[in-house]
Write a structure and sequence with these properties.
The protein has a single domain, classed as Rossmann fold, CATH 3.40.50. The protein is built from seven helices and seven strands. The protein has helices spanning 20-31, 43-55, 70-83, 107-135, 158-178, 196-199, 221-232, and strands at 11-15, 35-40, 60-64, 89-92, 139-144, 183-190, 243-246. It has a seven-stranded parallel β-sheet with strand order 3-2-1-4-5-6-7, with helices on both faces. The longest helix has 29 residues, at 107-135. It binds nicotinamide-adenine-dinucleotide (NAD). Nicotinamide-adenine-dinucleotide (NAD) binds at residues 15-16, 18-22, 40-42, 45, 65-68, 93-97, 116, 144, 146, 190, 192-193, 195-198.
Length: 253
């Protein structure tokens, strides 16, 4: 796909690309011509997603990493830069979605969400950002937050929603500090997507505004991928510090 949505010759590092939304993002970016790096804690999932993308004729490689562990992140980013080159786009997608009512939430539960969903994206942005700045070629950071921070709430997400609010705030600061390096930073806010992570999330059932059906029904992982592609593409070269909700029209329901 050449033109303003083409990513030929660009490296796209996608975290959490062994499952759900991350798979959809990886697929869409690969179809646009990107060399996709599948980054995930699930090593078998990384291997099978790389295989799936290659079988479809795309360029793909993988790296295992634990977003809860700074050392693991530093090692993985160094490996990617050393073996394949500096990513053009970093997609901070991986996240955990377990729920607990606020009155029952534990420090361990809060810290897990904060470490993987917020500190992980910060460390990825710092490490990949350093490589982007050193290369001097500009770049794109796309963070996956959630429509839960913009009203599509469900009970039991105190730790989760706070971690996603942190990611959205991180995007703004990234946009501010990276602008002089021609690196944009934007946020995608998915609504409901039926993924292994969403279906398997532990904790209370969906209860709250998120129960309201969206006019267009359920989004697919590729719908989120399309929004990511926009921010990653040449078409969005003048777009930074923005949020794009992919919520199937939930806000008008
Ligand atoms: N599914 C939804 O309805 C929905 C809605 C809004 C936002 N989101 C967000 O979209 C993102 C993807 O969610 P999903 O529904 O595809 O979930 P998923 O569980 O299906 O996929 C998440 C991936 O992240 C990986 N991961 C988890 N912990 C990790 C760690 N410590 N280090 C590296 N990788 C790790 C998992 O192995 C998995 O492959 C998440 O950030 C989630 O919060 C999802």
């Amino acid at each position: 796909m050449a033109g303003i949505f083409g990513l030929e010759g660009k490296i796209a590092l996608v975290t959490g690309a062994a499952s759900g939304i991350g798979k959809g993002i990886a697929e869409v970016l690969a179809e646009a011509g990107a060399h996709v790096i599948v980054a995930d804690i699930n090593e078998e999932g990384v291997a099978s997603e790389v295989e799936r993308l290659r079988a479809a004729g795309h360029r793909a490689d993988g790296v295992a990493l634990d977003l809860g562990d700074e050392h693991s992140i530093r090692r993985a980013v160094a490996e990617v830069v050393g073996e394949y080159g500096v990513p053009w786009v970093l997609v901070n997608n991986a996240g955990v979605q377990d729920r607990q009512y606020l009155l029952d939430e534990t420090v361990a539960g809060w810290d897990r969400a904060a470490a993987i969903n917020a500190r992980g994206p910060f460390l990825m942005t710092r490490e990949v950002g350093r490589a982007m700045v050193a290369a001097g070629l500009g770049g794109r950071i796309v963070n996956i937050a959630s429509m839960t921070i913009d009203g599509m709430m469900t009970k039991g997400t105190a730790a989760y929603i706070a971690s996603k609010g942190a990611v959205a705030a991180l995007t703004s600061q990234t946009a501010l500090e990276f602008a002089e390096h021609r690196i944009t930073a934007n946020t995608v806010l998915p609504g409901a997507v039926m993924t292994p992570g969403a279906i398997g999330a532990k904790g209370p059932p969906t209860e709250g505004p998120a129960r309201r059906p969206s006019p267009f029904g359920m989004s697919e992982p590729r719908d989120i991928g399309a929004a990511v592609l926009f921010f990653a593409s040449p078409a969005a070269r003048m777009v930074t510090n923005q949020r794009l909700a992919v919520d199937a029209g939930w806000s008008i329901s």
